Predict the structure.
Amino acid sequence: MTDEKRIASRRNVGIFAHVDAGKTTTTEHLLYLSGRIRSLGSVDSGTAQTDSLDVERERGISVRSATTSLVWQHTWINLVDTPGHVDFLSEVERSLRVMDGAILIISAVEGVQSQTEMIWHALQSLKIPTLLYMNKLDRVGADPERVLQEIHKQLTGMAVPIYAPLGIEDTFRAARNVLDDAPPAAGALPGFDLAAAVEKLSELDEPLLTSYIEGAPIAAHDVKAALQRYARQGEAFPLLVGASSKAIGIEELLAAILDYLPEPRGDAEQPLSAVVFKVERDKTMGRMAYVRLYEGTIRNRDTVVNATQGVEEKVTQIRRIDGRKAEDLGVVAAGDIAAVCGLTQVRIGDVLGRPDSVPPAPRMAVPLLTVQVHAESDAQYPALVAALQELTDEDPLLDLQWLQDERELHVKVMGAIQLEILTSLLSSRFGLAVRFDQPSVIYKETPSQVGEGFIAYTMPKPCWAILRFRIEPGSPGSGLVYESQVRGEQLLVQYQNEVARRVPEALLQGLLGWEVTDVKVTLVEGEHHVWHTHPLDFAVATPMGIMQGLAQTGTTLLEPMLQVRITVPEEFGGKVLSDLVQMRASFDAPSIAGGRFVLEGRLPVATSLEYPVKLSAMSGGRGVITSSFAGYQPSPPDVHAERKRRGVNPLDQSKYILAVRKALSN
């Protein structure tokens, strides 16, 4: 590895793409060209540097985000290779937060897909400067003009091609720099030239616009300088072309990382401000927390404050992880990424030190299915609980629930592929054979109308907690909004804080057993007793008041929806339309291009669980469906879905009080 003293600057870059766009292959070639690895690995043969899990090598897909690094032109580049499959979107989500720049890879054959759009919108919401890389120009069906139009229409009008393809499909041989003063090559594709770059940038840059309007000559180096400025601000997006499997466009991509993506900010001398974006368990070192530092420095044997959990822990080792290899660092400073050992209580998303420099986390991944897990025998349940808890530490969206009384284990998942991966991980890593039930859809509830919930918890003594809540429907996607209108002299602040903490817990199970969402809860009345009130009285009273209110408002069942894009050969279009009607889909008018029938619309998750397999079988493997979560919406009146309640229902107040008081006395 290049001597650290020669490092002039750094970059933190995430590599993102839809599944099968060539992301891991691109990462492998970047590492090889930089000299970081001596031989090229392959996704298909299971030798890719960033596919470290057995299941990744066996299946040829990325399951976890992988950190690696390389040096190019005296610049240290931290790369995070993220999964492309929608079932592992949570890994993408966590990686987005810690990047200063991104490479979004788009296949020149498939073009912009639903997950491409989802990742793009997340990058934009975080204002992350991004390079667009159109890959697979050597493949049959590559159509750079069409894909450029899709990028401008579906992602951004400010995508600026800086390289043009020489040849296409089997004649593709190189990427030609358009930001030079050479005349366009014969047969150059429209949009992939200097004039197109000038036209795009003139929308942002007044001097360029003036020269463009007046027809004055514009030097290529002035165009590049303008693009560098706007690209680093996240206002313009350089577009490159290549064929990673043949190493075409890789050197140009490395140069673009340095030219157009910003250096990380931060001062190593400032107090620590960092975030944990990944947790792994090492066989020898135990729990390793992958940390991005925004300010400050962490050294071996430092004691760091976990601001999220309010605990202090001592660092025992700092490592740089490169795929399957690791090297001890001893110190990591602002702007860098490393794995920190010794933080035994740390969780994904925890902030170390000051939180003010840590950017917000995007929210893209929403598990839509819940599934029960069965051990091979009763004796294996403790080991299975421990294994699933470890996996939940690494992916909190699994949201493990262990119901001891019923001896039931439940996890939340994104889809069937994730279940296959979990089965494989539990077998290879923990030696556990498990069985999953058929996944069931996660519904939600929302209040049907405005109403009030009242509870006077004054018996059996000693207790005293009186609460009145106003409960009303919220706007779609608003989640829970809670506020209190009660003055401190009516209900002490410490008791109000207890109520505020218990309201979200009380809404985890509504009248139908599902989480209640898109709801506004307002505490409008509260009363305590000077002698008889115990702080835990409000922990008991709050769920009873909330459930009594929901009984007044009634609840509406909400079902999860998918935004889908279906592409099939033209002759299957009629059958697809018929299927969609049966699945209660809503969709736009279909289009036909190049003999392919293309349709976009919204599908209920519940009616479409098996449809990808059915579509593939019907079309002889030539049909493609891509999907992304599109929120929850009210179910039709004839759809009924009720979940068995866990624990005693607070509507049965006498039984609930006895159950809770027994728990409190333990």
